[in-house]
Write a structure and sequence with these properties.
By secondary structure, the protein is α/β, with parallel strands linked by helices. The chain is about 60% helix and about 10% strand. Bound molecules: NADPH dihydro-nicotinamide-adenine-dinucleotide phosphate (NDP) and magnesium ion (MG) (2 copies). One magnesium ion binds next to helix 10. It catalyses: (2R)-2,3-dihydroxy-3-methylbutanoate + NADP(+) = (2S)-2-acetolactate + NADPH + H(+); (2R,3R)-2,3-dihydroxy-3-methylpentanoate + NADP(+) = (S)-2-ethyl-2-hydroxy-3-oxobutanoate + NADPH + H(+).
Length: about 350
């Protein structure tokens, strides 16, 4: 059985004794920076010139420096800019500031696993990856709880990289929930597979097809929205609490029987074969290459796919419905129904 690490297994004073530079102040960046600070860690923020995040970080009371200056000053450099920009900012601003004894920290293994970043000798390379979105990482910490983390050490130059990793994990609140050991390879490949096959890709496509089938058959889009999207959260909450078994315990016998006989008709064994092909492209680096090549070209494929997704009729229906009902929650960084980012 996997060993789980908690607060009692980590020495908070290790990270409290270091200066930490958080590069990027987005979803993960703001959460790590604020949680570290509240845990008594000395944090500066690194951002590119003209960044629209500067005002946000300064408003939160942080000192904001250039990426290079922040990396120069810090013992631990935390790379929380988007994965596709990390290679360039690392080469230009971080690598020149690295010296033996410093440490590089990631929240996802992409750039290390696929070879876009290689640290110089003498530098520890570790990862603490929260298994949840950045805004939840901050909210849970403020509520006295934490989001579980997985941690890895790629290079243990100091011989103490694991102690540093667990200390960091504790400071962001992750060990209040629990942490488990992984490797950069395992984290990267499973994270990409999970988001592509099930969590994001699989679920989005499943919901869109469900909505299309009902509306094309003449049912009201608002009713279709409730049935295939709104209720999904309630089902997933049950799975999260007690597995698929708890979900099946809670639903009606009619729904449970339908689950058994129709689930495998919709998600048939071909889907498993498709998933294996997706995993093979992740493992071979083909997905990473395609993503980075598109990003390097200005992201034409990515932006076209994003626009196509936003134009799906389910988004219009959802926007209208959510504005009419009391469950609607505001997220300070998300403008509902608009592509503003
Ligand atoms: P975001 O897209 O939220 O990061 C945006 C931030 O990075 C902004 O502050 C942006 O500033 C800044 N940024 C962009 N380019 C640069 C640059 N060249 N130099 C410095 N800062 C820059 O990223 P995420 O938080 O989503 O992801 C960060 C890392 O965390 C990734 O490795 C990701 O895989 C991982 N991760 C993310 C999760 C999540 O919840 N989103 C979950 C677990 C891991 P500007 O205003 O200038 O654009
Ligand atoms: Mg993930
Ligand atoms: Mg991911």
């Amino acid at each position: 059985m996997t060993e789980v690490f908690y607060d009692k297994d980590a020495d908070l004073s290790i990270i409290q004794g270091k200066k930490v530079a958080v590069i990027g102040y987005g979803s993960q960046g703001h959460a790590h920076a604020q949680n570290l600070r509240d845990s008594g860690v000395d944090v500066v923020i690194g951002l590119r010139e003209g960044s629209k995040s500067i005002a946000k970080a300064e408003e939160a009371g942080f000192t904001v420096l250039s990426n290079r200056e922040a990396a120069e000053q810090a013992d631990v450099i935390v790379i929380l800019a988007p994965d596709q920009h990390q290679r360039k900012l690392y080469a230009e601003d971080i690598e020149p500031a690295l010296k033996p004894g410093k440490a590089l920290m990631f929240a996802h293994g992409f750039n290390i696993r696929f070879g876009y970043i290689t640290a110089p000798e003498g530098v520890d390379v570790f990862m603490v990856a929260p298994k949840g979105p950045g805004h939840t990482v901050r909210r849970e910490y403020e509520a006295g709880r934490g989001v579980p983390v997985i941690a890895a050490v790629e290079v243990d130059a100091s011989g103490k990289a694991w102690d540093l990793a667990w200390s960091y994990a504790r400071a962001i609140g992750g060990l209040r929930a629990g942490g488990i050991k992984t490797t950069f390879t395992e984290e990267t490949e499973t994270d990409l597979f999970g988001e592509q096959a099930v969590l994001c890709g699989g679920t989005s496509q499943l919901v869109q097809y469900g909505f299309e089938v009902l509306t094309e058959a003449g049912y009201q889009p608002e009713i279709a929205y409730f049935e295939v999207l709104h209720e999904l959260k309630l089902i997933v909450d049950l799975m999260w609490e007690g597995g698929i078994a708890k979900q099946r315990w809670s639903i009606s016998d009619t729904a449970e029987y339908g689950d058994y006989v129709s689930g495998p008709r919709v998600i048939d064994p071909r889907v498993k074969e498709n998933m294996k092909a997706v995993l093979a492209d992740i493992q071979s680096g083909a997905f990473a290459e395609r993503f980075i090549a598109d990003q390097d070209a200005g992201a034409p494929e990515f932006l076209a796919l994003r626009a196509k997704g936003e134009a799906h009729p389910i988004e219009q229906t959802g926007k209208k419905l959510r504005s009419l009902f009391a469950w609607k929650q505001q997220d300070e960084d998300y403008v509902d129904g608009s592509a503003a980012r």
